């Protein structure tokens, strides 16, 4: 009874479960030593996903132009690789394959040659220089940075102007809060459009009208005025707020 669970665990840990053999390729198992994956002369145009335990890989005589980035990173046990006689395009995308091949000790880069562009046809990847791939490492021109900086500075200037305008508007605006027991809500009167001199006159006139109305109904007592006057003075001088007491 214990043999079945042990067999299931062994199959689960087997390398064959990690990545299946590509359909058009022929895979030969070496047991614990990995796989031989032979995809040569199959007409493939894209390098397929490969078992990570591959030890021998044959991709020659196909129509590969490049290798997707990261496609070969899991192949850590390779002893033999053949990628010759393919239509490799030595543009910017070939950098990944060139770098990967340079890290493989058992691979000869001399057999992997450029097919396109015409100026590099037949040139081994091992002989590609920075001049051949100069278009892949172009530095961004200064005008591109200048335009971005100008847009950023304009946005910052607009923000500063808006903040300054808001601050100026707030400092030059006087609000009168009228707490009147005869009304259910608070009355807000803005004197922002007036000059300072006119605002003071308007405020005095409103205060006088309010006091005249209140004197006819409920005059303020002396004690209330003694408490209210300091509060009104502080609000008026420090916060530019005037309260009309009722």
UniProtKB/TrEMBL annotation:
<feature type="transmembrane region" description="Helical">
    <location>
        <begin position="145"/>
        <end position="165"/>
    </location>
</feature>
<dbReference type="InterPro" id="IPR052313">
    <property type="entry name" value="GPIb-IX-V_Complex"/>
</dbReference>
<keyword id="KW-0433">Leucine-rich repeat</keyword>
<keyword id="KW-0130">Cell adhesion</keyword>
<keyword id="KW-1133">Transmembrane helix</keyword>
<feature type="domain" description="LRRNT">
    <location>
        <begin position="20"/>
        <end position="56"/>
    </location>
</feature>
<feature type="domain" description="LRRCT">
    <location>
        <begin position="86"/>
        <end position="137"/>
    </location>
</feature>
<keyword id="KW-0812">Transmembrane</keyword>
<keyword id="KW-0094">Blood coagulation</keyword>
<dbReference type="InterPro" id="IPR000483">
    <property type="entry name" value="Cys-rich_flank_reg_C"/>
</dbReference>
<dbReference type="InterPro" id="IPR032675">
    <property type="entry name" value="LRR_dom_sf"/>
</dbReference>
<keyword id="KW-0356">Hemostasis</keyword>
<protein>
    <submittedName>
        <fullName>Platelet glycoprotein IX-like</fullName>
    </submittedName>
</protein>
<dbReference type="Pfam" id="PF01462">
    <property type="entry name" value="LRRNT"/>
</dbReference>
<dbReference type="GO" id="GO:0016020">
    <property type="term" value="C:membrane"/>
</dbReference>
<dbReference type="GO" id="GO:0007155">
    <property type="term" value="P:cell adhesion"/>
</dbReference>
<dbReference type="InterPro" id="IPR000372">
    <property type="entry name" value="LRRNT"/>
</dbReference>
<keyword id="KW-0472">Membrane</keyword>
<keyword id="KW-0732">Signal</keyword>
<keyword id="KW-1015">Disulfide bond</keyword>
<dbReference type="GO" id="GO:0007596">
    <property type="term" value="P:blood coagulation"/>
</dbReference>
<feature type="signal peptide">
    <location>
        <begin position="1"/>
        <end position="18"/>
    </location>
</feature>
């Amino acid at each position: 009874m214990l043999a079945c669970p042990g067999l299931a665990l062994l199959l689960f840990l087997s390398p064959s479960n990690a990545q299946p053999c590509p359909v058009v390729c022929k895979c030969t198992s070496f047991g614990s030593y990995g796989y031989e994956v032979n995809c040569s002369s199959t007409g493939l145009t894209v390098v397929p996903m490969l078992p990570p335990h591959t030890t021998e890989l044959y991709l020659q005589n196909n129509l590969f132009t490049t290798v997707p980035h990261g496609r070969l990173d899991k192949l850590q046990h390779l002893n033999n690789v053949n990628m010759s006689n393919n239509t490799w395009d030595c543009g910017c995308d070939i950098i990944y394959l060139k770098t990967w091949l340079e890290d493989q000790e058992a691979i000869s880069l001399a057999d992997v040659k450029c097919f396109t562009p015409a100026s590099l046809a037949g040139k081994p990847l091992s002989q590609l220089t920075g001049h051949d791939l100069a278009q892949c490492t172009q530095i961004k021109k200064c005008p591109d940075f200048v335009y971005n900086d100008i847009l950023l500075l304009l946005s910052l200037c607009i923000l500063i102007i808006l903040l300054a305008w808001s601050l100026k508007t707030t400092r030059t605006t006087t609000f009168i809060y009228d707490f009147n027991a005869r009304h259910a809500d608070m009355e807000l009167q803005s004197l922002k459009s007036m000059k300072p001199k006119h605002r003071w006159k308007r405020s005095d006139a409103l205060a006088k009208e309010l006091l005249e109305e209140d004197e006819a109904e409920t005059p303020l007592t002396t004690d209330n005025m003694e408490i209210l006057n300091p509060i009104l003075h502080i609000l008026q001088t420090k916060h530019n707020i005037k309260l009309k007491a009722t």
